[in-house]
Design a protein that fits this description.
The structure holds 2 protein chains of 2 kinds.
Chain A (H helix, E strand, L loop, with lengths): L1 H22 L10 H8 L20 H10 L1 H5 L3 E2 L4 E2 H4 L2 H13 L13
Antiparallel strand pairs in A: 1-2
Chain B lengths: L1 H25 L17 H16 L2 H4 L36 E2 L5 E3 L19 H6 L3 H4 L5 E5 L5 E5 L5 H8 L7 H8 L37 H4 L39 H6 L5 H5 L9 E13 L4 E9 L5 E5 L3 E3 L14 E6 L9 E15 L10 H7 L2 H13 L6 E11 L13 H5 L16 H4 L7
Classes of the chains: A mainly alpha, B alpha+beta.
Amino acid sequence: MKILKLIVVMTWLFLSFVLITTRGVTAGGDKDNGKELFKQNCRVCHEKDSPNGEFTPMSLTQDQWKAFFKNKFEAKHKDVILDREKKKLLEFLTTQQIEAIQKFCVDHAADSEQPQTCSE
Amino acid sequence: MRKYRLAAVLLVPLLALVFVWTRSGAQETPKNTHSDYYEHYEGTKTCLKCHEKDAENFFHSQHYQWRGETPKLVNANGRKLGKINTFNDFCTSPTGNWIGFVKNSRGEVISRGCSTCHAGNGLKPSETMSREQLENIDCLICHASGYRRDLYQNEKGDLLWKPILWKNQEGLDSVSKRISKPTRVMCLRCHSASGGGPNFKRGDIEYKLADPDRSYDVHMASEGKNMQCVACHAGENHRVLGRGADLAGSDTIGKDLTCESTACHSAPHKNPVLNRHSASLNCTVCHIPRFARTDATDMVRDWSKPSYNAEADKYSATITLQKDVTPVYAWFNGFTKAQLLGEPANFLPDGSVGIMIPQGSRDDPKAKIYAFKLHKARLPLLADKNWLIPITVEHFFSSGQIDPAVQMAAKEMYDLSTIKYTWVETTRYMGIFHGVQPKEQALKCMDCHGPKGVMDWKALGYKGNPMSLKPPPRKN
C-alpha cells in the first residue's frame, strides 16, 4: 500500500509540473515594467544603425528570444557597462528585471500577436 | 473493495493527465509542417514551386481580386464588382487609399492604406494573371502562424509589404514553415480590424472570437466545438463559401452558406412550433439576439464632421460607437440592391440613400427575416448628377481637411475637378451571422411577440403583432 501511495503522490507531482509548464506560468517578471527596462537598458546600445546591432522585441521570434536569454544573454553582456550607472549591466540588473525584459521581448516578438518596437 | 480503491486512486490522476494533455492541445504551438520542403523562404516564389496551381486559383478569388461575379446583386448587370471598384460608407474606397505612409504632425505613421488587409505584397490586383501578380500573392498572411508584415520602401521607391523578419532569415524560415489552414486568429486580424478599429465595421466579428466561451459563440468556443472560420466558410480552390448580405461579389456561384446547407441543422428543434418559425425566420434572428457584445461597433459615421483624436494625433469622421446592440430585422431573399459609383442615388422612403439594401418582403416565398446591423453615414453627393463620392481618407487622416479629400476623390474616381456637392445620409444593412449563442440565451416567444418585442411588425409588412392578430398562416 505504501508503494501505491508513493505512485499516487509522484503522479500528482508530475501533473503539477505539467500544468505549470504547459500553461507558461512564470514566477516574477510581471512586477517590473519590461518595456521601460528595455528602453533604459537595452535600447541605449541597440538603436537603429548601432554597431552593436539594432534590436527591438520584433527583431526575433519568441523561440529565438527564449534561446537567447537562456544561452547567450549573460555571455554576450558580461563586460557591458552602462554609462548611466557606471556599473556592469549584469551587476545592477536583478534577476527579476531580466525576467521582465525577457517577458516583454517574448510577448512582443515578431511572431507574437502584438509585435512591438519599444518606442510604440 | 480494496481493488476498487486501488483502481480509483490510479485512474483519477491518469484521467487528469489526459485532461491536461487535451486542454493544452487547444493552444498548442504551431507545427513546422513545411520543414522538409525547403531550406530558406525567399518570398512567394518559394511557395509557387509546389503551389503554382493553388496560386492561380487564389489569384481569381475574391480575397485577391477584391471583386467577383455578382449573381446576388439585382442591379449589377453582369459586372464583376467588389470593394476594389465600388465604395462603402466606412473608409469609402481603396482608390487613392491603396498604399502609403500617412504620418501625423509628430511624424508617426497613422495609416498604411487599404492594402494592409489585402493578401498581396503591395501591388493592386490586376484582372490579368501574370508572373508578377502571382508572386505578389502573400500566402503567409493567411497560412503561417506568427507571420507578421510591415510596409517598406525599396531602393526604387516602391512600397512593398514584407515580413518584419526580413532581416532575420532564421526567424523567417521558422515562421514560414508553420503552415496550416487559416485559423480564427489569422482571419480576425483583417476581418475584425476593418473599418478603422476593433469590430468597427462588421459588428459581429469581434477579436473575442479568437478565444470565446460557449456563451459567446457555441460553434467557436475554445473549450467546446472550437470550430475554425473555414469549417463553415469552406469552399474549394481558395473560393470561400458564404456571402454577407452587403457584399457585392460572390466567390462560390450557386452555393450558399446557411445553417441548413451545412447539413448540421436541417431540423434543429424538438418543438414543432419553433421549426415552423424557421420557414419565416433565419436562425440568426433568435440565436444572435445581440451583437458587439465585447467591442463597440460603428453605428453612425458622419464624414461631414471631422473629429480629432489628440492621443493618436489623427483625424477621422465623427463615429458613433455602440456596444451590445439589438439587431434590426428585415426580409431578405439572398439578393441585394447596391448603390454603385457613377449611378444616381437610390433614395429610400426615409430620405437616405440606400447603399446596400436586402431584397425581399413578406410576400416573397424565398425571403426570410434576418438580423442586421443598420449602419448610417453621411457622405458627399455630387450636385446635378446625384452620384455619391468617396473620400480620399489618407489625405484627410493627417490634415482634417474634408473638402480637399472629397475633391481629390472626385478627381480620382470621376475625373472631375472643383465639384459642388452636398452631404447626404446613407443606409446600409449588414447581415449579422456570428456570435451564435446557446439556446438558453436565444430570443423567447415574448421577446418578439410581447408588448416590448424587438420586431417592428409594421416595417416587416404585418398589421401588428401576428400573435395578437392571429392572421392566417403564411402560404409558402
